[in-house]
Each structure stands twice: as C-alpha cells, then as structure tokens.
Amino acid sequence: MDKRTANDIWHQFATDADCVSYGNGHINDTYLMTVNPYILQRINTDIFQNPDELMENIENVTAFLRRRILAEGGDPDRGTLTVIPTKTGERCFKLDEKNVFRMYKFITGTKTIEDSGTPEALYEAGVGFGHFQRLLDAFPIETLHETIPDFHHTPKRVEALKKAVREDRAGRADSVREEIRFALENACWADTVVKGIGEGKIPLRVTHNDTKINNILFDAVSGKAVCVIDLDTVMPGSALYDFGDALRLGGSAAAEDEADLSRVSFRVEAFEAFAKGYLEEMRDCLRERELELLPFSVKLMTYECGIRFLTDYLNGDTYFKISRKQQNLDRARNQLQLVRDIAAKEQRMEEMLKTRQ
Ligand code: ADP
Ligand code: GN1
Ligand code: MG
C-alpha cells in the first residue's frame, strides 16, 4: 500500500484529531493540531475469510477486558487494544473484498521482543498471557466465532500433512522422506489435548492461539507486560495451546528458521521463568489435567507447528510467507529438531513443576 492510499484510508476512521488556538501572539493566528498515534492494519483476508466475524470477536473481547481491567484498577487504554470505528460506525473499512482495514489506538511507551527473550522477559510474558486468560475466564465463550476452524486440532493437521504427501503438488515429497517419517511416527500423541477436551477433562477457554512472544507489548522502561495484541485468532481453545505455543518460540535457543540444527535446543530455564509468571495468574483457574500437561503442551505445539511448515513446503509454500527458497523446510526441520530436544527434557520440566506446587 502506498502512503497516499494509507492516508486516504486513515481518513475513513473516526480518529480524534484536534485543533486548538495556541499561544499569545498579537499578530498571527496560531493553532495547535494534535492527533494521537494509531495503528492501521490491512487484515489478511486470504487467511481470515470473514473479517466481520473476526472484528466482532475482537470488539467483544476487548470490551470485556476493558471492564475487567477497570474493575481491578488498571488502565484499559494500555491493558487492552482499543478498536477505532470508521466515521460511519463500522468496525473495519472495506475498500473492496480483498482490502479490509482496521484501526487501533497505538499504545505508546512500549516495545516488542523479537528474539526468544531473557528469562526475565519470559517471566513477564507468562504474567501477560496468564493475566489475559484469567481476565477472560468468565467471558461467554459461546458468543465467539471460530475465525480459523480447527486451528489447533493437531490430528487434523496430521491429516493435512498426509494429504500433502499423497498429492505432492510441488514434487518435493521424495526430498523430505526423513522429516515425513519422523512426523508420522510421532503422530501417536497428537490427539492428547483434543481427546482431553472431548472427555471433559480439559475445558474449553477463551484462548489467544498465537502466543508468540512478539504478540505482547512490554513497557519500554520497566519491561513489564502491558498488553496482549494480535487478537485475530482469539477463539475457544485450550489453555495448553497458549502455554505451549509461547514456549515453542520463547523457549528456543535459536530463531524459528535457523537452518543450523546444532544451534536448535530448548532452554529449560525459559520454561521455568514463563511457567512461574503464568502460574502466578492461572494456577487457581487450571484443572489438574491442564497442570499435568503443561510440559507436554510445549512439545505438542512445536510438533504441530513443525508439521504445518512441512505441509506448506510440500504444498509449494502457499500459506506461510517466505523470504527465501526452502525457508519453510528449514522451519519444519528446526521445529522437529526442537521437538526431539523438548522430549528429552520433558521429565525435567515435569519435576520442576512438581517442586513448585
Ligand atoms: P501480525 O498479525 O502481522 O503479527 P500484529 O497485530 O502482531 O500483526 O502487529 C504487528 C506489530 O505492530 C506488533 O508486533 C507491534 O510491534 C505493533 N503493534 C500492533 N498493534 C499495536 C498497538 N496497538 N500499539 C503499539 N504497537 C502495535
Ligand atoms: C503465524 O502471524 P504470525 O506470524 O503471528 C501463524 C501461527 C504460527 C506462526 C509460526 C494465523 O503467526 O499459527 O504459529 O506463524 N498464524 C496463523 O511462526 O496461521
Ligand atoms: Mg503478531
């Protein structure tokens, strides 16, 4: 999008630009123009095919969070996203079917963490995501739309991988036999959380479903978690999805697409720090089965992401953006290597949690 288009779109939204008389000059007429900073985002309509439902979710969830944050004496303008409607009162602006925009208040004085993060930052991230989930504990979950159906249904992700292998659309299956073998050999525990939900041992909650550490804004000075952002995938899900996904990235010693697998390992100290923050918020809300599966969830979510990358590589890179050839394959190999390391450290993490309880 060029600057001019962005500017035209910006004018569609009900922003609060102000113009007041300024100073005490005797000669000229002087005015101060103020405008708060805003975030303008184009919604990816290839992935989110119903932007109206998506924005309804975000509006309802942020309105609920706003009330909860006010009730506990916090600042809702910093603690949650604020959706700015268009001048005609819509939640988003549709230039055409493909180009749909939304606006949020920009939350000032914050930063994001783009690497895995120090244990201190991970503790804060744990508090941030845990707090988000706790505040949404009483949200009427049945009112939420599923913005991407079966998003974390791991067995269906396994089926999608099998289909991609069968179809072999990009002619790449022969070159990744070892990765496919490892993925399918480990598919036996893919249904653990889905089964737990089905049996009523794991409750459905309002979950974020994309808890990358860069989806939290941290205070630029104190480093404390300020606001959970990127709410497109807020849907009914399991707390284990959010816990596991946060550590999939936050717990890794290397970037998600690091091709040198000798650098890929899981940092148990990151798990300890994140779990500490998360449990300070969520311990009293979680059921026994959820607590039990926290270490497992890190392996599960890393596995799920690994097979999603592998599937996309086999399909010819149609879902995840790539900036170089084979990036999805590097990501897949990286995540599957991380699964091996997490599995080797799973028991240590379980013991760590037991001594904390
Ligand atoms: P994506 O889905 O592409 O990851 P995000 O919603 O996470 O998009 O936004 C991308 C980046 O924009 C964030 O990582 C953050 O740096 C910044 N950002 C988004 N919303 C806000 C906001 N309300 N205030 C400040 N920064 C924001
Ligand atoms: C995508 O948009 P982003 O980068 O926050 C993906 C996540 C994956 C992640 C892997 C809607 O997240 O599910 O875990 O990439 N989001 C969607 O890095 O598919
Ligand atoms: Mg994001």
Short description:
By secondary structure, the chain is of the alpha+beta class. It has helices at 3-10, 51-71, 76-79, 119-135, 154-167, 177-185, 192-198, 239-250, 268-282, 288-292, 294-315, 327-356; strands at 18-21, 31-34, 38-43, 83-84, 93-94, 100-105, 110-111, 205-207, 216-219, 225-228, 235-237.
Would you kindly provide a written description of the structure presented here, covering whatever features stand out?
By secondary structure, the chain is α+β, with helices and mostly antiparallel strands. It folds into two domains: 3-106, Phosphorylase Kinase, domain 1, CATH 3.30.200.20; 119-356, Aminoglycoside phosphotransferase (APH), C-terminal lobe (Aminoglycoside 3'-phosphotransferase, Chain: A, domain 2, Alpha-Beta Complex), CATH 3.90.1200. The protein has twelve helices and eleven strands. It has helices at 3-10, 51-71, 76-79, 119-135, 154-167, 177-185, 192-198, 239-250, 268-282, 288-292, 294-315, 327-356; strands at 18-21, 31-34, 38-43, 83-84, 93-94, 100-105, 110-111, 205-207, 216-219, 225-228, 235-237. The strands form four sheets. Strands 3, 4, 5 and 6 form a four-stranded antiparallel sheet that branches. A hairpin with a 5-residue loop joins β9 and β10. α9 crosses α12 (327-356). Bound molecules: adenosine-5'-diphosphate, 2-acetamido-2-deoxy-1-O-phosphono-alpha-D-glucopyranose (GN1) and magnesium ion. Adenosine-5'-diphosphate is lined by residues 39, 81, 104, 106-107, 110, 112, 214-215, 217, 229-230.
